[in-house]
Amino acid sequence: MVFLNRIYTRSGDGGETGLGDGRRVPKTDARIAAYGGVDELNTLLGVTAANVELPAAITPRIATIQNDLFDLGADLCVPETDTPPEHPPLRVTSEQVARLETWIDESNESLEPLTSFVLPGGSPAAAHLHNARAVCRRVEIGVCHLAAAETINEHSLAYLNRLSDLLFVWARYCNDAGNNDVLWVPGGER
Q1: What angle do CA 149, 75, 36 make, to 5 degrees?
Q2: Domain around 97
Q3: Which residues form a coiled coil (predicted)?
């Protein structure tokens, strides 16, 4: 359980912040950038859910994903260690990744097959989901940068990779099952 009785602590005024294991690092650290990106993605999904009409099946799933993204932020906030910690940190699981795969498969069944790349847009819901997908890809790159420098939970990257796929499928679903997708026409505006 989280208990916050003070929002400001002044401990970050010098450009450092604390990790979940108590270590202090610069706010420019790759780990901070990685879970800061996860927070941005989570916020964007909240904005999407609050501002556009989504299919009934998607809305509760976005809430689940937002909770998962807090799990992912908590995971990234506590570095992996060879020594078992006294209190095991929260880690993203293979089950969370598998759940996204199930949702992708369920949603993709009803979509028209793709004949071209899809331009972000169409309905407002699809446009918001495409925006979230693009941010998710950027966040994934930030976590890849962290993974290149430090050991991270392997399910973290898998979760983000599946999430961007799910957001793409959901965007198509919100475009009348792909019937109203805006397709890329290579060189079509020359």
Answers
A1: 75
A2: 26-80+89-182
A3: none
Q: How many angstroms separate the CA atoms of 92 and 95, rounded?
A: 8
Q: How far apart are CA 65 and CA 133, in angstroms?
A: 13
Q: Which helix (H) or strand (E) holds 68?
A: helix 59-77
In this structure, is residue 176 part of a structural domain? yes
What is the mean pLDDT for each group of 10 consecutive residues in the chain (190 residues)? Answer: 65 68 77 95 97 95 98 93 84 98 96 91 96 98 97 97 98 93 85
User: What is the rounded distance in angstroms from the CA atom of residue 6 to the CA atom of residue 102?
Assistant: 40
Beta bridge partners of 16: 26
Using the 8-state DSSP alphabet, how is residue 90 labeled?
A: P
Domain count, the chain: 1
Only one residue has tokens 């996860």, namely: 38
The pLDDT score that the predictor gives to residue 7 is 64
Domain CATH code at residue 120: 1.20.1200.10
